[in-house]
Design goal:
6-stranded mixed barrel; alpha+beta; Ribosomal Protein L25, Chain P; 4-stranded mixed β-sheet; 244 residues
């Protein structure tokens, strides 16, 4: 079967924290397979297999053929991966059994391409609001990603779920009014703030140049030095009076 990934699993007889810790030390990950109609089964899988799945084209949406021993096998998908809260280490995986002839609902990433007119010629900003959409389809027809061309977007225009192209392979079931992306005008406050900063800097530069060019104008350092000398002289006069 196309894009099917085979991994091996072993049944976990014990599910204590001590056993789970021992499995991780051996490069294995404790996991559970949730059944459609069958009961859940605690298993252990190789960490390297999970990493390879997450590097594959469809990542967690990959169809897996899980082999348990020489006789038991079933198709599944990753339902959830749990990570250590202090690191990015995988500590547990949940699988869900699949019936390849029944529809599933999964999150699929959205990829934008093209340069919006509103950004290129109208000084707008492209806002990427929802980076995933939920789709319903057969496990064998889960798309790797949904690509959206944003080249024609002007300022004030957006792309919503209900404007996505329809296909027989899958159905997008996220709310129809969900905004995926939009081109917005830059905020007036932001533009005004930039202009004010530019004017202030320009005024400071002009003021400094005018002061430097004025006749008899002393540099700040020189003025400060003269002030210190005057203070020293005053202190000397007071001291002479006291001695007299």
């Amino acid at each position: 079967m196309e894009n099917l990934i085979t991994i091996h699993a072993e049944l976990r007889e014990e599910i204590s924290k001590k056993v789970c810790k021992s499995l991780r030390a051996q490069g294995k990950i404790p996991a559970i397979v949730y059944g459609i109609s069958a009961e859940s089964i605690p298993i252990a899988v190789d960490l390297s297999d999970i990493k390879n799945i997450m590097k594959s084209e469809k990542k967690e949406n990959s169809i897996l053929r899980i082999l348990q021993g020489s006789k038991t096998k079933f198709d599944a998908m990753i339902k959830e991966i749990q990570y250590d809260y202090l690191s990015d280490h995988i500590i547990h995986v949940d699988f869900i059994r699949l019936d390849l002839k029944k529809l599933v609902e999964v999150e699929v990433p959205v990829v934008l391409f093209g340069d919006p007119i509103g950004v290129k010629t109208e000084d707008g900003l492209l806002e990427f609001i929802h980076r995933e959409v939920q789709v319903r389809c057969l496990p064998t027809q889960i798309p790797k990603e949904i690509r959206i061309d944003v080249s024609a977007l002007h300022i004030g225009q957006s792309i919503k779920v209900d404007t996505l192209p329809k296909t027989d392979a899958y159905q997008v079931i996220s709310p129809a009014n969900t905004v995926i992306c939009a081109v917005a005008a830059k905020a007036k406050e932001e533009v005004a703030e930039v202009a004010e900063v530019a004017e202030a800097v320009e005024g400071e530069v002009e003021g400094a140049a005018t002061a430097a060019a004025a006749p008899g104008a002393a540099a700040p350092e020189a003025a400060a030095a003269d002030k210190d000398k005057d203070k020293s002289k005053e202190k000397g006069k007071v001291k002479d009076k006291k001695e007299g």
